[in-house]
Amino acid sequence: xxxRIGKTxxxxxxxxxxxxxxxxxxxxxxxxSYQVTVVLAADDLVPPGFVVxxxxxxxxxxxxxxxxDHRNLNDVLDIPPTSERLARHFYDWCVEHLPLHxxxxxxxxxxxxxxxxxxxxxxPVGGGDx
Length: 130
Ligand SMILES: Nc1nc2c(c(=O)[nH]1)N=C([C@H](O)[C@H](O)COP(=O)(O)OP(=O)(O)OP(=O)(O)O)CN2
Ligand SMILES: [Zn+2]
Fold this sequence. Notes:
Strand content: 25-35%
Helix content: 10-25%
Radius of gyration: 16 Å
Largest sheet: 5 strands, mixed
Order of helices and strands: EEHEHHEE
Bound molecules: ligand LPXRUNBV, zinc ion
Number of helices: 3
Structural class: alpha+beta
CATH class: Alpha Beta
Oligomer: single chain
CATH superfamily: 6-pyruvoyl tetrahydropterin synthase/QueD
CATH topology: Tetrahydropterin Synthase, Chain A
CATH architecture: 2-Layer Sandwich
Shape: elongated
């Protein structure tokens, strides 16, 4: 794909990670200022020169605000809320819910819990459904 654009959305949430060794700090409830970066790709632009309008990501903003922001992710998601699994969760959500025109693919989704860390999901080549 010739063009790639990205938008970062932020939210605050609590979580704990199950299955860690006894005493691991991330087994205890704590919170993060999450950042979710969605990258969209296309070979061609639509007028006036967009991959997509950044505003077209507003359904994801609404989902995050309504379902995840200031909540405990362990309560509202059915996955262990690691950064890696959250990145895949947001990728799947975008595939299902974002109204993208033909030729636009979701290149990757990156999730950061802190300024120093991230996890990224990129669909396998030829294996993505967008
Ligand atoms: N591969 C992953 N490792 C860890 C994840 C994760 O999602 N993927 N998550 C955590 C915890 O959520 C933890 O809150 C963050 O861990 P860490 O960066 O180690 O914690 P700090 O911000 O306190 O970093 P320090 O360098 O220790 O100050 C753990 N691991
Ligand atoms: Zn954490």
